[in-house]
Each structure stands twice: as structure tokens, then as C-alpha cells.
Design goal:
This protein is mainly β. It has one domain (9-245): outer membrane lipoprotein receptor (LolB), chain A. The protein is built from 4 helices and 13 strands. A 13-stranded antiparallel sheet has the order 6-5-4-3-2-1-13-12-11-10-9-8-7. The radius of gyration is 19 Å and the shape is globular. The termini are far apart.
Amino acid sequence: MAVLLVGVASYGPLCAAQDKPVTAEIVAESVIVAYGTRPGLAQIRRNGLERGEITRIAADGRTEKADYSWRFIRGENSEKDKFRLDQKSPTLEYALIYSGGRTWGIINGAVFTPRQDATEDFLTQERHGLDALLRYKENASTITYVGKEKQKGLDLYVLDVTDKDKRKTRYYISARTLRVLWLEYEETPPGGSTPVKFMRKYSDYNYAQGTLVPKRTVTFEGDKQVQEKKVKTVTYGVKMEDSLFQNAEAQTSSTTP
């Protein structure tokens, strides 16, 4: 078992290991304890429903707000997860769904195949999110300790998580609270040849059923903010009908909202 780092007063002493070198596993396992412990996260976050508001900012500066709900059922690893994003804006209402390794959408009761860029944007929330770190063992991901840094007066542990498909996410973790403050990753747009750098910042952390949840997430593409997500409510352990994640076979239109 990894020896855990000291750092979070509200959790009590976390098995100090000051005389031993910091490793990727020590940092990762300490973060998992801070977010709710491995057994706690596995049990409490087995399924859930999150509701809130998403604000997207287009390249021309126009903004569009949408109410959203995010439903999920966790499998033994992320490939076996099921999740669904429903969004409702003044102009459009639709859902995107991932289940059984496939992604599709529903609009006005009809199933459609999303554009590749819409699919990638949808899936990146899981591929390059907090759970990619919190579930690194389940996903057989590789973790690398980059080092300890100081930025803007903050002491940070820097950790890379690389999944089985070689997608890498770099996490900047507060050495004091063991919370992820932001993460960075690169993605090559569909049809493009040059990777684009993204950053996702997490703030306004609160507890939900004994586990940590950031209530505000801001995403940047390059140096421009492209999305802000605000969580209003989150409930874990709710009964989830499997029909919410079905109908993948009824492929029709290739046009996404």
C-alpha cells in the first residue's frame, strides 16, 4: 500500500512519509484519499445524476447558455461506463450518450450520429477529467511524477496520467489540500495536423455525500476560455434506468446539433 502524503488538516494526519522520496503512486493515492478514499468513491459514485449550467463561448465571442444533466453508471473501468449528457438551450434540446463503446445522440426522439468533433468534445470530459486520475488503476493507466513546482504562490505536485490509448493528461495538485486545481492536455482536431493545448480549471469545491466535487469548471483552448460549467446539484446512488443508455442500433442522420 502506498504511504500517503501529509497535507490536509481537515482529514487528520495522512500517514507522513517525509523521510521517503515522493512517487507518482504516493501522490495519486493521496489525492484519492482526499476526494473520498478508493472504497468510498467506488461505492458512492457507482452511479449518479448531476445538474447545472454550461456556458459556451464561440470564436466570435458569442455566448450560449444551456441547462444540462449528466447521468452515469460506472463499470469496472471507463470502457465499460455508461454516461449521458442532456442539454437544453433556448434554441435546441438534445442528448449525447456513450454505452458499450459507442457514442450516439437523440434529438426530438430520433437517433443521430454526432459529428466527430462533437463526439470528441463529449468524450474528452471523461478521458481528460478528474476521474482519469481517480480511477487510474481501474483503467490500467500509467502515472508519472513530474515533480513539485511553485506557481502563483502555490506549492503544487505535478502528475501525468497516460491511458492505454496513449492519451496524456497533466494534473496540477495543491500540495496543501491535495485537490486538483487544474489539468492540461493536447488534442489534434479532426482533420487537423497540429495539436491544440487545452486547460481545465477546477474551483468551488464542496462535499457531496462525503466526496469532493468542484462546483465550477472552466475550460480553455489555447489562451481563450471556451466553456464554463457550474454544478447546481449532484446526487450519487440514484436508481438509473438502463433504457436511458440504449437505442444505439437505430443509427440515422449524420448531422449533429
